[in-house]
Design goal:
Layout (H helix, E strand, L loop, with lengths): L1 E6 L2 H14 L12 H7 L11 E10 L2 E11 H6 L4 E9 L3 H17 L4 E4 L11 E4 L15 H8 L3 E12 L7 H13 L3 E3 L4 H19 L10 H11 L8 E5 L5 E9 L2 H7 L7 H10 L4 E8 L9 H14 L4 E4 L2 E2 L3 H4 L6 E14 L1
Parallel strand pairs: 4-5, 11-12
Antiparallel strand pairs: 1-2, 2-3, 3-4, 5-14, 6-14, 7-12, 7-13, 7-14, 8-9, 9-10, 10-11
Helix pairs in contact: 6-11, 9-10
Length: 374
Amino acid sequence: MITIRELSSHDELYDFVHFPFLLFGDDHPQWAPPIISDELDNLNPQKNPVFNHVEVRYFMAYRHEQPVGRIAGIINGLEVRELDIPKIRFGYFDYIDDPDVSKALLNQVRQMGKEHELEFLEGPLGLSNLDKAGMLVEGFEEPNTMVTWYGMPHYPSHLEQLGYEKEKEWVEYEIQIPEDGPSDKIERFAELIRERYNLHMVRFSNTKEILGYADEMFDLINKTYSNLSTYIPIKPDQIAYYKDRYLKFLHPDFINCVADENGNLVAFAITMPSFSEALRKANGKLFPFGWYHLLKARYFPRKAAFYLIGIKPEFQNKGVPSIIFKEMNEVFNKNGITTVESNPELADNEAIRSLWKKYENRLHKRRRTYRDSL
């Protein structure tokens, strides 16, 4: 018999965050676990300002008092009210290979959505658009990055058996970086674009310098994606939170910013050292040795993960990314990095996907969200 319990206390939320450690354990070496304290902070209304406009309820499934699944029901008020999207999200969705478990968990979210008179549910999605999103449907043999969820093959099959339909799809690429530097074609084109628009690179030597540009970067993110009908602008309190949460993981060399003649930012790209291997070694804990593995990955990276790109609307489709990729190629060469993973990008975003055609690449992961009416 399956029992569903709603969780709320700190100890119960620890169990919620810790469940994937029981589910994946040592049997899934591809899984890069999160830092437990970081996950708990992200789900803490006292620390994460997203809760100013988000309601979340957490559920765990048990069989014979043993946890067998988890799910979060998420109502993003900005999404519902400002964008007029009558949706409840489900996220943090992990479960054993038993359709009765996944169905029982989803039913809790369905009921929550009906109570708020919403019309459909979609997931897996995080609390906001900057959180993890999408269920892995291809690439189970590949390690997940710090900003993505891992999953098992039975995850999507359960949803499809229940009649859920594909809503959005993202793809991820593994990109090989030329060891002899950017090609002559990219070098010439980047220089042409730089001279045509009188642009220059902004370089950083420490995290304090990055912080000085952080607000401008987030403003550029809002401008870059404002034309997407489902994009929720990032609020100032969230910007402060994300700066605090992720700045410690950034390597100054891996932040590529392009500015105009007046010093105003027109484009940027954030690439992180890959923390997947370090996270596996840390196994959810910063102490006693987790910090060592993360710091080693930050300063002596063997692989990188392409996280985010922003381009001022008036500079889009003008070849500006070529300046960024030229710089990135040189930085990676200096650090001995030959492989980079892309962040999940919408499968129908041809503009982004076309960027990787200039490099040897491999589409190695695919993820989706699923939806159903209430």
